[in-house]
Design brief:
Helix content is 40%, strand content 15%. It is of the alpha/beta class. It has a 7-stranded mixed beta sheet, sandwiched between helices.
Length: 228
């Protein structure tokens, strides 16, 4: 299985790092993608964009290594994403190369516009990746379309009717807390690891396990099963 997680800014992936690590550990290919470098974070002050990119590339490499994933940055502009066809096509071309079976991203209604736009383009790219004439516009090297059925998972939203799926990440909790602490130290968050742990425990309580991460599967109906 190939899994691609698409987020707007470094640290957005905290809601699924346990799930990604669990899949990587069983041999699945995992690709972590950020559409911006999160360059407007106040911790960077007046640093030039090239300096910010360098720091963020280091962050991305470290997080991906902890998970056992590959990673990729786009440079669509922190708080400048528009959900455009151009942005969707950039992701579609990445899909065509990586061939994902599963996509993970933000919910459609998050307050941050980049989060909403990253969810939009991640979903739009599924269709764009299927159409050869779109996919290969102005390309010298032809890409083969990616047409296999995909599962599109999103962070939970109270306003969504999509079915919720829980993943038991009890064995990945220590790794998840390590990545949380890495970002907490950089951003100088006041939140402590016990708050992060309680969030995972609350999700676990919903599903009858110690610690869990939750997603909503973007589909209208849950597939039929043979039995309950």
């Amino acid at each position: 299985m190939n899994i691609i997680a698409v987020f707007a800014h470094p640290d957005d992936e905290l809601g699924c790092v346990g799930t990604l690590a669990k899949h990587a550990a069983r041999g699945d290919k995992v690709l972590l993608v950020w559409t911006t470098h999160g360059e407007l974070a106040s911790q960077f002050g007046d640093s030039k964009h090239a300096e910010v990119r360098s720091v963020r590339q280091e962050h991305g490499a470290w997080v991906a290594a902890q998970i056992g994933a590959d990673h990729h940055f786009f440079d669509m502009g922190d708080s400048r994403m528009t959900g455009s066809r151009h942005e969707g096509l950039a992701l579609a071309r990445l899909y065509a190369q990586f061939k994902p079976d599963v996509i993970i991203g933000w919910s459609d209604d998050h307050a941050h516009p980049d989060h909403r736009m990253s969810a939009k383009v991640a979903f739009d790219a599924i269709t764009l990746a299927r159409i050869p004439k779109i996919l290969n516009e102005e390309l010298e090297t032809r890409l083969e379309p990616h047409r296999k059925p995909l599962r599109f998972y999103q962070y939970p939203s109270a306003g969504s009717a999509y079915p919720t799926v829980h993943i038991d990440v009890s064995e990945q909790l220590e790794l998840s807390e390590r990545i949380f602490s890495f970002y907490r130290d950089f951003y100088r968050w006041e939140a402590q690891p016990d708050l992060f742990r309680r969030g995972r425990a609350a999700r676990g309580l919903e599903a009858g396990v110690a610690f869990a991460e939750a997603f909503q599967l973007r589909q209208r109906f849950v597939p039929a099963r043979d039995f309950l």
